[in-house]
Amino acid sequence: MIRTDDFQAAAALLSEARRIVVFSGAGLSKASGIPTYRDADGLWMNEDALRYSHADDLQRDPAGFIRFWAERMAEIGAAAPNPGHLALARLQQLRPETRLVTQNVDGLLTLAGCTEVLELHGSLRRWRCDHCGNRHGPWPLHRCLRCGSRARPDVVMFGEALDDAVLLAARDAARHCDVFVVVGSTAVVYPAAELPWQAMDHGASLITLNIEPLHLDEAARAVLRGPAEFLLPRLIDDLLPRAL
């Protein structure tokens, strides 16, 4: 059940904003058939995920590491954007200074037509070679054709730091936005979890949109409880007449 006053408050904040940041997590992609990490069929319920999610695991068991992540990449490759992703692409069209920051590694925002998505944890739609920096392939037998080294998914594993340039761009966007929207993320994993607080410290209003309560709700100007694929299209459809 959506509280009308919160929905109207969120719509009003977005309509008045020029610079918007949308920070998304696994809840945004659940309707695309990608379980959140702690769902019954989520990634952390898979023993192999725990075995092959650290940076050192590629050296410990190269064949097992590549086999596991190639299967995950095939699953991600079969997924399609849902109405939540498409609504965010429309938001960027209505508010061109909207920046999208995501913890997701599925690449669905880009497939939906969103631009310049800041993928904090990388993407499972790409391989990369850590030896020579190749990100363009081809990858015969999961090896880099340029230097012959073993390729790996272009995602941040445990034991690795986020890409400095991506994190810096996300922090800059948070510090200069008018409204910061958290969608489908618990926003508890650092350093990404600092972004909503940085935005509010610099005067931005916070909107939270999630199925479950968040620790950020108390600081939010509007709290929307429900699935992203349902609420985001409604919010953007409400924004459209105001933008004309």
Describe this structure in words.
With 244 residues, the protein is an alpha/beta fold. The chain has two domains: 1-32 and 80-121 and 162-244, Rossmann fold (3-Layer(aba) Sandwich), CATH 3.40.50.1220; 35-78 and 124-155, SIR2/SIRT2 'Small Domain' (2-Layer Sandwich). Helices cover 36% and strands 15% of the residues. It is built from nine helices and eight strands. It has helices spanning 4-16, 47-51, 57-60, 62-77, 83-94, 108-111, 164-175, 195-201, 228-243; strands at 20-24, 99-102, 118-119, 122-128, 152-155, 179-183, 205-210, 222-225. A six-stranded parallel beta sheet has the order 3-2-1-6-7-8, sandwiched between helices. A two-stranded antiparallel sheet has the order 4-5. Strand 2 (99-102), helix 6 and strand 3 (118-119) form a beta-alpha-beta unit. The radius of gyration is 19 Å and the shape is elongated. 40% of the residues are buried. The model has no long low-confidence stretch (mean pLDDT 92).
Could you give a short description of this structure?
By secondary structure, this protein is α/β, with parallel strands linked by helices. The protein has helices at residues 4-16, 47-51, 57-60, 62-77, 83-94, 108-111, 164-175, 195-201, 228-243; strands spanning 20-24, 99-102, 118-119, 122-128, 152-155, 179-183, 205-210, 222-225. Helix 1 packs across helix 9 and helix 7 (164-175) runs parallel beside helix 8 (195-201).
